[in-house]
């Protein structure tokens, strides 16, 4: 296999840090795949293709897990007739506020772990997360089993580091 050396010059664009020039060596089959990505419109060059690919890959790694675990009756607030994550704070629910704070920090892949009843109600409010700028995956917890075991139910979706947030806590700080 032939190896190609690239010398990439990145220019600064709005709302992004300044780019730096780097040199990399890549196998020829990968170069062919990169060249196939270049369309001259959305992806203007090999450098642009590599930048977009790396940005997407690194962003995909930023996952947040919101634990809505434990027995549903422990999260239900009789006085107001709803689960804690669905309590209204200003114009949105507690869980919407948490997800928006995650999204603002680049955590756009959200995993919600909870019992079926709660996940159903959360889905009715959040859907797939598109309106909040994220993707939400719902994982069902079958029985209360503590934080570590609850996280284990989502192990197939947690290949990298992740941020874990309890659903019943209001975060009054930047992540």
Give the SSE map.
Blueprint: E1 3-8, E2 22-27, H1 28-37, H2 46-60, E3 63-68, H3 72-75, E4 76-77, E5 82-83, E6 88-89, E7 92-93, H4 94-104, E8 109-114, H5 116-126, E9 135-140, H6 147-152, E10 162-166
Parallel strand pairs: 3-8, 3-10, 8-9
Antiparallel strand pairs: 1-2, 4-5, 6-7
Structure description:
The structure is a single chain. The longest helix has 15 residues, at 46-60. Strand 8 (109-114), helix 5 (116-126) and strand 9 (135-140) form a beta-alpha-beta unit. The protein has 175 residues and is α/β, with parallel strands linked by helices. It has a four-stranded parallel beta sheet. Strands 1-2 form a two-stranded antiparallel sheet. It has six helices and ten strands. The chain has two domains: 3-58, no CATH class; 61-166, Alpha-Beta Complex (Spore Coat Polysaccharide Biosynthesis Protein SpsA, Chain A), CATH 3.90.550. It is elongated, with a radius of gyration of 21 Å. The protein has helices spanning 28-37, 46-60, 72-75, 94-104, 116-126, 147-152; strands spanning 3-8, 22-27, 63-68, 76-77, 82-83, 88-89, 92-93, 109-114, 135-140, 162-166. Mean pLDDT is 86; it is low at 7-13.
User: Into which percent range does the helicity of residues fall?
Assistant: 25-40%
Q: How are the strands ordered across the major sheet? A: 9-8-3-10
Structural class: alpha/beta
| Terminal Cα span | 45 Å
Report on the biggest sheet.
4 strands, parallel
The CATH architecture of the largest domain is Alpha-Beta Complex
What is the approximate shape? elongated
Task: Tell me the radius of gyration.
Answer: 21 Å
The total number of structural domains is 2
Can you say what the CATH homologous superfamily of the largest domain is?
A: Spore Coat Polysaccharide Biosynthesis Protein SpsA, Chain A
- From N to C, what is the helix and strand string? EEHHEHEEEEHEHEHE
